[in-house]
Amino acid sequence: MMLLAAIIAATVVIMALGFEMLLVLGIPTLAIKEVFYGRLPDVVFVQKLLGGINHSTLLAIPFFLFAAQLMASGQITRRLMGLVSAMLGHTRGGIGHTVIGGSMAFGSVSGSAPATVAALGGMVYPELRKSGYSEKFSLGLIVSSAETALLIPPSITFIVYGWMTGTSVAQLFAGGLAIGVVLALIFAALVMVHAARQNVTARPRVPWKQRLDALFAAGWALGMPVIILGGIYSGTFTPTEAAAVSVVYAIFVEGVVYRELGFRKLVDICEASAISTAVIFILLAFGGVLSFFVTLAHVPTAISSFLAAIDAGPILFLLILNVCFLIAGMFIDPNSALLILVPPLFPVATSLGIDPVHLGMIVTLNISLGMITPPFGLDLFVASSTLDKPVTKIIAGVWPFVAANLIALLIVTYIPQISLFIPNLLFR
Amino acid sequence: MATLLKVLRTTERVFLVTIFLMMVGLFTLGVVVREVAPQYSSDFSWIEEAVQTLNLFLVFCALGLALERKRHVGVTTFRDSMPLPVRRFVFGLIDISGVLFSIYTTRLGIEMVQFVFASGQRSPTLNIAMGWIYLAPTIGFVLLGLRYALSLFGVIDRFTPDTANTPTTSEKGAA
Amino acid sequence: AEFVAKIGHLESAQQSRNIYLEKVAKLVNERTDGNVEFEIYPQGQLGNQRQMTEGTQLGVLEATVSPAAFLGGFNPAVSVLDIPYLMPQDFKQAQAIRDSAFGKELLASFSSKGVVAIGLWPNGFKQFTSNKPIEDWKEFAGQKFRVMDSNILIEQFKAMGASAIALPFGELYTSLQMGVVDGEENPLDTIERMKYYEVQKNLVVSDHGAMEDVILFNEAFWNSLPENYRKVIVDTFHEVIPDLVKDKADKVAAALEVVKQNGMNVRVATPEERKALREEVYPATKAAYIERAGDEGKKLIGLYEKAYADVVGN
Ligand code: NA
Ligand code: NA
C-alpha cells in the first residue's frame, strides 16, 4: 500500500514537471510491474503495449485525422464554413450550435469521439474565434461536442456493452439517440449563455443571392458528408472504411478539382497526420498496459464485494457506479474502463431492477465524459494535437462542459424514462 | 552529424508517408472490389489484417519525429513557470528518463521479437510471421530514445517553444 | 495455494465455458487439497485471444481455453477443426473422435509451441444467417458472408459460391444492419446474444461448423506440477464434458426459441442436405488445410478419416 502510494505520488510529480505523457504513463506502470508482479515475464510490457492499439475498430482514427488535415489546409473546410456562416452567421450562437450539430452528424458515422475531434476541430476552431467566442470556450466546445459520437448511433461503445451484457444493440442505439440529444441541448444552452455574456457578434444577415453562391461554392465540399453518410447507410462500406474513402475523396477534390494540393503538400500533410496518430495511439497503448495490471490487481472483484457488503439501494448504487467510472475515466482509457467495470457492476444493477438499456446509457455517458476529464482524457490530447494548443489550455476550457455533463448524467441516471422512451416505443 | 540526422529524417518521412498512403489505398481497394466484383473479394480478405499491421508501424515509427517536432503531449504549465536554471535541470531529467526508458523498452522489444519468431506464430490471413509486428515498437523506441539522447546532448532543441504561431501542421511538416 | 493458475478466456461469465471452468476450478482445488488454485478471467479481461495464447506461451498467464479457430496462427495443424462438418452431430460419436488417435495427435501437435494442450472441449456448432433467402445451398451463390480470418472458412464459402468478407466481430452487427454483408455464421447462442436476429431475416440450423475449444497450459507451469496433480486436472476437464454439452444444448435450445419469437425465419437443414454440403465443401477445405499445415496436416487428415470411418462408417 505504501509502495503504491509512493508510485502514485511519483506519477503526479513527473506529470507536473512536464514529462511527456507517454513517460508519465509508462514509467509508473513499469514500476508497478516490477514491484507487484515481479514474477511475470518482463516482455508482458511490450505485449500489452501492442495489445492496447492492435484493434481494427481504432483504425478510423488515423484516417479521419488525415482527411481532417487535408480538408483544413485546403478549400473544403473553408467553403463548408463559408456556407454555414452565410446561413447561420446572423443568429446569436449560430456557429456554436453548428459545432454541436456538426459533431452529432459526424459522430453519427464515425462512432469515435477522438476521430470527431480530429475531423472537425481544425475546421471549426478558426470560425469560432472569428465570431468572438473565447479561446477557452471554443476549445471546450469542440472537445465536448465530440462526446455525442459515442451516444448517437452507430456507436462502438454500445456494441461492446451489448456484447458484454447481452443487451439489444438496436435498443441501445435507440436509447442513445435520446441521450445524445439531451447532451446536445445542454451544450446548446451553454453556447447561448456564453454568446450572450461575451456579446458574440451576430453578423448582418446575408442576402439569399450570396447564400446560393456559398452553396454552389461548397458543392464539392458537400460531397464529403454525402459520401461518408450515404456510403455507410447504403451499406457500401463500414465506418472504418468510410474514413479511408474520405481521405481519397479529399485528395481528389483538393488535388484535381481545386488544384491546390501538390505532391509536396500531400506528403507534408500525410507526415503531419502520421505524427498526430502516433501521439494519440501511444497513450492508448500505455493505457492498455495499465488496465492489464488493474485487472490482475482484482479491482473488479474488490468492487463487487464492496457493493455486496454495503447492500445499497438503486439510488446509492447508481451514485457509486458513476463515481467508479469517473475515477476510472480520470486515469485509464474509457474503453478499458468499460471492460474492467461492467462485469462486476452489471449483475448488481440487474438485481436492483435497473434496466440494462438504462444502465448502458449511464455507462456510455460516463465513458464519454471520461474522454474529456483530466488528467487522462483522450479527446483532450487529440484536440491538443490537432489544434496545436497546450493541454492545460484545453482543460481550462472544458470545465463548464464537464459540469454540464455531470448534470446530464444526474438527469439520465435518475430519470430512466429518457433512456427508455424510444426503445419502448420501437421494441416493447 | 547534421547530414546523418537529415538522412534519418528523410528515411522516416518516406517510410511514414508510404505506409499511410498504402493503408488508404488498400482499404479503398477492398471497398472497390467488394462493390464492383464481389466474387473476388474473398481473395482480398487479407487487407484488414495488412492495414492493421501497417498502422502499428505508422504509430511507433513516428514516435521519434513527434518528439523532435515537439508534438508529444504533456502538462507543461507548471514547469514553464519555473526559473530557467531549474527548468534546465528538469529538461535534463526528462531527457535522461526518456533515454533510459527507451533503452529498456527496446531491450524488451528485442526479447519479444525473438520469442515470437522462435514460437513460429503466423498471422491468420496474410500468413506472415507474427514476430514482425513486435518489430514496430522495437524500432519505434530506438528512434524515440535517439531523439531523447540528441536533446540531452543539445544536438536538437525540443524545449524552446516555436515562435511563429502556426496552427496548420503542414507548414511544420515542411521544416 | 502452492500452484496458482490464471486462466483467461473470451466468453462472458454466464456462458457455458465460464460456468464449467469455475466448476473445474472448484473440483481441482478440492481434489488437490487446496494446493492447485485456478483464477478464471472471463470476457477477454486479459486481452484478446491472440494475446492470451501468446501470453500462455510466455508465462504471462498459466492457461487459456481458446476456440480452435483462433489458434491457426500458433499451430496450423489445429485448423483441421475449421473444416465444415468435421465432427458428427451425435455427441457420443463426436466424443469418440475427440478421444481417438486423431484427437491425441492433434493435442500433441501443440507440444513444439511452448504450450501443453490437455484436452478439447466441445462448444456447440455454427449456423448460417442471412437477409437473403437461404432455403437451398444454391441460394448462397453471389451472397456476401462475413468470415473470421481463416483461409479454410474462406474456402468453405467459395466452395458454396458465396463471397467471403473478412470483418472484425465488433463491426458485424452494424455491417449486417447496413447491408455491407448479407449474412454470417455463428453458434446460435452467439446469434441470440449479439441480437443478430434484429438485423437478419433467415436462419438455417445447419450445425456445419464444430466449435471446439482447446485447453492450453504454459509448458513451464505444467511441468512444475506434480504428476498426480496433472492427472487430476486432465481428468477433471474430461469428466465434465457430458454436463458441459448438456448445458450448452439447453442454452442453444433457449436461444433458438428467442430467435424464433423475434420473427426470424428458421429452418432446420435435413440430414441429406447436411451430407450433401459436407461432400460439396470437404475437398476444397481439406486442400486449403493441407496447403497450410503441410505434412503434419496430411498425417492428421489421414488419422481423422480413419477415425471418422471407424466411428460413423464410410
Ligand atoms: Na456514433
Ligand atoms: Na478522463
Automatic annotation (TrEMBL), chain A:
Keywords: Cell inner membrane, Cell membrane, Membrane, Transmembrane, Transmembrane helix, Transport. It is a multi-pass membrane protein. It is found in: Cell inner membrane. One of its GO terms (cellular component) is plasma membrane. Its main location: membrane. The keyword Nuclease does not apply. Residues 10-418 form the TRAP C4-dicarboxylate transport system permease DctM subunit domain. Pfam families: DctM. One of its GO terms (molecular function) is transmembrane transporter activity. The chain crosses the membrane at residues 50-68, 137-163, 169-193, 214-236, 242-261, 273-294, 306-329, 336-354, 360-382, 394-415. InterPro entries: DctM, TRAP_DctM. Belongs to the TRAP transporter large permease family. The complex comprises the extracytoplasmic solute receptor protein and the two transmembrane proteins. Part of the tripartite ATP-independent periplasmic (TRAP) transport system. This is TRAP transporter large permease protein. It comes from Thalassospira profundimaris.
From TrEMBL, chain B:
It is a multi-pass membrane protein. GO terms for molecular function: transmembrane transporter activity. Belongs to the TRAP transporter small permease family. It comes from Thalassospira profundimaris. GO terms for biological process: C4-dicarboxylate transport. This is TRAP transporter small permease protein. GO terms for cellular component: plasma membrane. The complex comprises the extracytoplasmic solute receptor protein and the two transmembrane proteins. The chain crosses the membrane at residues 14-33, 53-68, 89-110, 130-150. It is found in: Cell inner membrane. Keywords: Cell inner membrane, Cell membrane, Membrane, Transmembrane, Transmembrane helix, Transport. Residues 23-155 form the Tripartite ATP-independent periplasmic transporters DctQ component domain. Part of the tripartite ATP-independent periplasmic (TRAP) transport system. Its main location: membrane.
